[in-house]
Amino acid sequence: MKAQLTMADRAHLRRALELAEAGRGSVSPNPLVGAVIVRDGQVIGEGHHAELGGLHAERAALVDCYERGESPAGATMYVTLEPCAHEGRQPPCVEALLEAEIGRVVIASDDPSEKASGRGPGILRDGGVEVLAAAGEEAAAARRLNQPFRKHARTGLPHVTLKLAISLDGQTATAPGDSPWISGEASRALVHRWRAESDAIAAGIGTVLADDPLLTARPAADASGVPFPHMSGKTNTASEGRQPLRVVFDSQARLPLDSRLLATLDQAPLLVVVSAEADTARVGALHAAGAEVLVAAGASQADRVHSALAELGRREVTSLFLEGGRTLASAFVAADQLDESRTFVAPVLLGGPGSEPTEPARLSALESSTEPVGEDALITALYKEW
Length: 386
Hints:
alpha/beta, nine-stranded mixed β-sheet
């Protein structure tokens, strides 16, 4: 049941949310989860889901509790997502909570997946555990924490985030021969962290032909040289060899065979999304070069976007990071598959012909925020909430 939580309850939930963040980039397609065990106002155990296949947050917190020499019997556990009741890569967490004789569980958010969705809290209540569901800021933060997981659970499709970099006069590309970068060093470092946190990175063929990008995640440190927090310790991030799937939307199979994307298949996998009308010889050449080719159904690019997203969802890709390209961004908008945008506005004037506003700007955002990143301003807009 929903309950009015005390200030102490809310503080412990916020700590659980902080712990959950430590698993970012390491646990997909699982959700980010943190847990805190408290008795008489004192924290006696903490844990988070640190890597796919590893202990869930609840069990990790119980292990920490025992290692501290504490007993969790009768204590309160604060957890960011309802405890699971199904057998997966780990046994059900509700079993561990009942065995530990936890007396009270405060849950920040529900699990919308079919195999969960309220079963865990029901089993705990049947076992005599007091179960409370949070409301307000902590509940909202817990839902926002796991938007990719929640969208995939409800729709089978990945959560899509578009990244853009624009100048003060609305340009998204520099003139030939100039530096290819619009945004600053700190912004580019942040983008690499976002790549490492994503299951897949996508670009349109126009961007690929213009820039010959790698689309790999190289997030060893931020602009100051300090490693990103989630890159420390034993994780399954890009810093230890994990790379997101690279996806190129290339309806006519025009990707050059000497591109850096094909030259670096030993570093990261590559999926090329083509249409049924693509030249069979070009498709065959991409296959021969080692790329995986997906023939997406549909006459329009928006149809092919939806087809490709459905296939990515079947592969348990829960988050797709969309890198630039007005044409591709427009196709995602037309397919109604843009969930969030992150736009860097750089303090430069590039001149050149005027350009229309970027397509995401025409969507109605549920909320938006602006923050400084180095010299740039980062505008984050949320279009859907799952």
